[in-house]
């Protein structure tokens, strides 16, 4: 075991862990959307987990930076918050869902992050991006709502880990990027209905369908 200090608090963790893993395991919250404990290689796409460390000149992403004995970590500096707020506003500019219409049990991950970094959930009119995507995509086991999707990639990653046929992937580019499903809407969708993708979705972009007997 090694010791690091986070915001003045000394914690113990294992060599090889990332700063994000060490903090979360010790009850210290760092905003994140794309982190999956089961993935060896972090996606590092949401850019929300910035921290400052004693041996780096600039903020680093906590999901990619490994711990070192004696490391001093600061999670709430002005530089960190500025980067987090910029990343979060960009994410929310393409997320067309409000707390009143959110289907996820409250508080959802976006609400928690907004509260933690002290920023509003609703972007200003000029900060809202129009996306060329469908309102919803009806699939065999669940419904996909692209406007709620923040492209965290968790559903794609967990699906790849569980299903060698990789039914979930990304399509299009930029802000029009969507999660796509091979065989979408068809009875031969290469999906065994494990529910892992729905379970890891932080925004309600994937909503499971009830079994036929409950419809």
From TrEMBL:
Q: Show the coiled coil region(s).
A: none
Q: Where is the signal peptide?
A: none
Q: Where is the 4Fe-4S ferredoxin-type domain?
A: 191-211
Q: Entry's InterPro entries?
A: 2Fe-2S_ferredoxin-like_sf, 2Fe-2S_ferredoxin-type, 4Fe4S_Fe-S-bd, 4Fe4S_Fe_S_CS, PSI_iron-sulfur_center
Which domain of life does the UniProt lineage start with? Answer: Bacteria
Enumerate the CDD domains for this protein: fer2
Q: Which Gene3D superfamilies match?
A: 3.10.20.740, 3.30.70.20
Q: What keyword terms does UniProt attach to this protein?
A: 4Fe-4S, Iron, Iron-sulfur, Metal-binding, Repeat
* SUPFAM superfamilies in the record: 2Fe-2S ferredoxin-like (SSF54292), 4Fe-4S ferredoxins (SSF54862)
Q: Which residues form the 2Fe-2S ferredoxin-type domain?
A: 1-79
- State the Gene Ontology terms under molecular function: 4 iron, 4 sulfur cluster binding; metal ion binding
Q: What is this protein called?
A: (4Fe-4S)-binding protein
């Amino acid at each position: 075991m090694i010791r690091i200090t986070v915001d003045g608090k000394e914690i113990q963790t294992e060599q090889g862990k990332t700063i994000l893993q060490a903090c979360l395991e010790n009850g210290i919250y760092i905003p994140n959307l794309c982190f999956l404990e089961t993935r060896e290689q972090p996606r590092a796409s949401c850019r929300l987990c910035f921290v400052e460390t004693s041996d780096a000149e600039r903020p680093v992403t906590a999901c990619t930076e490994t711990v070192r004995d004696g490391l001093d970590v600061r999670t709430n500096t002005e530089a960190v918050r500025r980067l987090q707020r910029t990343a979060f506003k960009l994410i929310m500019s393409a997320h067309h869902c409000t707390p009143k219409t959110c289907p996820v049990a409250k508080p959802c991950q976006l609400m928690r992050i907004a509260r933690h970094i002290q920023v509003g959930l609703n972007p200003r009119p000029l900060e809202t991006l129009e996306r060329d995507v469908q309102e919803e995509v009806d699939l065999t086991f669940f419904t996909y709502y692209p406007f709620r999707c923040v492209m965290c990639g968790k559903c794609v990653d967990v699906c790849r880990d569980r299903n060698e046929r990789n039914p979930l992937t990304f399509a299009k580019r930029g802000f029009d990027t969507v999660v796509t499903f091979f065989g979408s809407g068809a009875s031969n969708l290469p999906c065994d209905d494990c529910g892992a993708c729905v379970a890891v979705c932080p925004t309600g972009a994937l909503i499971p369908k009830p079994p036929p007997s409950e419809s």
